[in-house]
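Now read the record:
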Amino acid sequence: MRPSKLPSDAELLKKEAAGLSHAEIAAEFGVTRQAVTKRFNLMDRYARQEYRDVAKVLPWDLASLPAKDVIHNDESFMGLRAFVRQRMGAEVSVRSQLALRTFLNHLNAGEVLTLDPVQGVQWVKRDPQRDGPLAIRWPEGEPWDDRTDLFRFLPA
C-alpha cells in the first residue's frame, strides 16, 4: 500500500476551515481532488445529521448491506426517515415531506415497510399480530424496546 501524500485529518480540516476547496488542497499535496474528497468522506465529514439520527434508532443494520446506498436513496426509506425525524421532534425538509406523504399513504392503506437484505426496503401487507401498531416490520428476534415508540403509527 502506498503511503498517503495527504496530511492528517486534523490538518485537512484546518485547510478546509481556512477556505481552501478540495481542488486547492489536492493541488497543494499533489493528489487528485477525488482523493481529498474521499478522505473527507471517510471522516464522515459530510454525512447528514438526519441520517445519523435515524440510523441510531433503526432496528436494521444497513451498514452491512451491499445495497445500502440504494436503500438510503429509496423514496420509501426517505419517507421512513422523515416519519422518524418528525417523531423525534426534528424539522423535515420540503423534499422529505413529499416522501413522508407517500409513506403515510402506504401506512393508511394497511402496509408496513420491511427490509429484505437482497431486495432492499419494500412494502408488505400489515400483519396485525406481528406488526402491531408499528410503521415497519420489526426484525424477527429483535426485542421491542424504547425505539419502537418512534415507529408507532395509529391510522386515522
